[in-house]
Amino acid sequence: MMKSLIFLVFTLVLLPGTSLSQLSPSENRILHQIQKVLEYPPSLDTFTNWTDFCTLPSTDTLTITCSGNHVTELSIVGNRTRTSSSKVSVSLSTGFSIDSFFTVLTKLSSLKVLSLVSVGLWGPLPPKISRFKSLEVLNLSSNYITGEIPGSVNRLQNLKSLVLADNLFNGSVPDLKPLRVLEELDLSRNALGFLFPSVSNKVVSILLKNNSFRSLIPAELKGFDQLKRFDVSFNHFIGRIPPYLVSLQSIEYLNVAGNQLTGTFPADVSCGGKLEFVDLSHNLLSGKLPLCIESNSTSRVVLYSWNCLSDGNLKFQNPNSFCHEEALAVKPPKRVQEKESGIKIGLVLGIIGGAIGAMAILGMIVFIVFRRKGREAAEHNIYEKADVRKDSSLRLSPKLLTDARHVSPAMRVGALGLPEYHVFDFDEVEEATNNFDPANLMGEGSQGQLYKGRLREGSVVVVRCLRLMQGHSSQSLLRHMEVISKLRYRHLVSLLGHCVINHQEYSNGATTIFLIFEFVSNGTLRSHLTDWRKKEAMKWSQRMAVTVGVARGIQFLHTGVTPGIFGNNLKIENILLDENLTAKISTYFLPIPFVVGSESPFKGLESSERLDGVENGEKDDVYRLGVILMEVITGKASSSQDEVEAQRLQLEDALTNASSQLLLREVADPSLRGTYSFGSLKTTVEITVNCLSKDPSQRPSIEDVLWHLQYSVQVQEGWMTSGDLSMSQSHGLS
After folding, report:
1. 508 and 632 in one domain?
2. Which residues cross the membrane (predicted)?
3. Which H or E element spans position 365?
4. How many helices (H) and strands (E) does the chain have?
5. What angle do CA 78, 82, 86 make, to 5 degrees?
6. What is the pLDDT of residues 358-390, one digit of tens each?
7. Are 414 and 489 in contact (CB under 8 A)?
8. Is the domain of 653 the same as that of 703?
9. Which site among 21, 77, 96, 462 is 20 to 30 Å from 549 CA-CA?
């Protein structure tokens, strides 16, 4: 009996889940309070009045670790995931106060790990974040935190990981060099800029993608011997690309895509021995790739399309003149070029001249007010004074035609090869269409007619006629035409110009806009997939190039103009191909809200509904791109939603089946046999299935789709330059 009792006591002492001391009552109350403030998220459903927090088993959505009766780790993953365009509709309620929340949270004074992901936090991050003296990991990703990152964050002397990705932070990043032990910095997908963050050279990972940084990549990175991951893609970094980036001792992943980096690589530059992935695409680089990158290696992925490089696959490069012109247009911000001494001198001079400047500004304000009143009066009469034959167009000012405030650098890339935007006279439109000859009528819809025409210099164009509703203002029309004039891009059927008339004898007295588009004569993507004569030219490489073009066109519509253009009703029969098989989207949504018969998805919506409409429009465009991708892969058209879903399930099954390689080859268009890499096909099928997800929030962003398609192209290029192509063709396999 005594032996059994001793054994029982010994066993209880050694049980791993048993705690001989409880969490302090104050911290116990704080955890319950956190559950309440976060509005009872599902991940905290296990919290009850009797919960022993220190013995809770860890899950994918909740981890609580204790030491010495104190919480040392609190990791919560909520269900309020933030997508690329979502707003406060899935954040915590308006009664939430982020300041009060962190006042409570900082009472967990022993925290070493704090991770609050997708819990719906909103508002500016309070400076009291610095009260976590023991904090080593701070992860607040995928929330709705706004404003600047507080400078007090650099007082967290023990911080090793700072992850603030997928929020709404803006402004400059505070000096992070005092964080001597910082190893991971992830500020991706915010609106931060414009200088590169100042960090310690001990950092291992720097992720800044999808922000607004516009500066040089600093030279001191050359001494970052421990840096393994460096991703600054899709920003506005400028200047010559630092060759040492590929040579860093520990670098494994390097992504500088989607910037405005210029220059060439020295021929003798060496690559770091651990380098596995390099993405240099969509910059302004020229010359040749370093030999260490160019050499064919199965252990290293290299992406370099859409630069001006003179080696590799030239089909996916811009001409040298393009990079030269773009480089001239890109200059470092003045703040980057100035020396510190110059700033100090400017400050002194500014103080001395302050009083004089104030007097000058006061006089200027008076002048501007009177001048603006005169200008507004002139604009108000823009139609009343217009003669139909002599001055029939709503004319954009020279400033409007050259002002780049509403267009991204991508617009200048896409407008390559197009003539300057032109405001046409009505005489020119009539002449081009032969007085709107019915023989030139290409189609007619609720919004107006479509005519084929020819300009005086011989160019064939398409003229789209749009009637405006009564009651619109000339100022409003002028603003919208400013956006319209920016729709010039390599992968859109681009606008060449417009004409606006207010003709009492035409169109029942309604104001009419004539939009003049380029004419694309080589048929649709659908016809190239179904017509046996055209199909011969549409092997896998050509199809992938087309899909990349379509994705880039959608990306431009979403991000290349402000405001972005969403809900574009994309269809494969509306993707046109020019003589070089360059894809051009022909039926994107035109942001003119007062067009008769307008199909704007946002017409008549309140502001909150409009925000939801933008998000739905973005995800709808991604879904429709998925439908296009599916037909490109299978060669089969889908005439109904049920057919789309059936084909999606077939692709999904082929991916997950143990015999996926065989099944994927069976679902692929038989005419592609022997022309594709299995890795390229699989990557494309995977992103297609994701695009077709029933849940819009689970669909990828257009940037993610584009990245995967470009990666698929690169895999295909590597396969074609190896010996596998001829071998697969000789065996009738792919």
Report:
1. no
2. 345-370
3. helix 354-380
4. 21, 27
5. 140
6. 444 444 444 444 444 443 333 333 333 333 333
7. yes
8. yes
9. 462
In a domain, 209, yes or no: no
Helix, strand or coil for residue 370? helix
pLDDT 10s digits, 516-566: 998 888 889 999 998 877 887 789 999 999 999 999 999 888 887 767 788
The better pLDDT of the pair 347, 633 is held by 633
Residues with Cβ within 8 Å of 390's Cβ and at least 6 positions away in sequence, in order, are none
CATH number at residue 648: 1.10.510.10
Residue 36 has, within 13 A of its CA and on its CB side, a CA count of 10
How does residue 469 score in pLDDT terms, banded at 50, 70 and 90?
low
706, exposed or middle or buried, with CB in 10 Å at 0-12, 13-18, 19+?
buried
Both structure tokens of 493? 């059927």
Average pLDDT rounded to a whole number, residues 458-469: 84
Residue 142, phi-psi category: left (phi > 0), alpha (psi -120 to 50), beta (remainder): left
pLDDT in tens, 677-687: 888 999 999 99
Tell me the chain's radius of gyration from C-alpha atoms. 30
CB distance 65 to 91 below 8 Å: no
d(CA 720, CA 722): 5
Q: Which of 59, 57, 62, 53 has the alpha carbon at shortest distance from 24?
A: 53
3-state secondary structure of 282: coil
Q: What is the mean pLDDT of residues 48-61?
A: 89
Q: Residue 562: what residue type?
A: T
CB 93 within 8 A of CB 39: yes
C-alpha closest to that of 64 among 15, 100, 115: 115
Looking at residue 94, its pLDDT comes to: 84
Q: What is the pLDDT of residue 323?
A: 83
Reading the block at residue 8, the tokens are 């029982």
Q: pLDDT tens, 201-230?
A: 999 999 999 898 989 999 999 999 999 999
Into how many domains does the chain fold?
A: 2
The three-point CA angle 539-542-543 to 5° equals 80
Whether 115 is covered by a domain: the verdict is no
- Tokens for 683? 């990557």
Cβ neighbours, 10 Å, residue 597: 11
Instruction: Please say whether the beta carbons of 360 and 326 come within 8 A.
Output: no
List, in order, residues 6 or more apart from 223 with CB less than 8 Å away. Answer: 201
Sign of CA dihedral 332, 334, 335, 341: positive
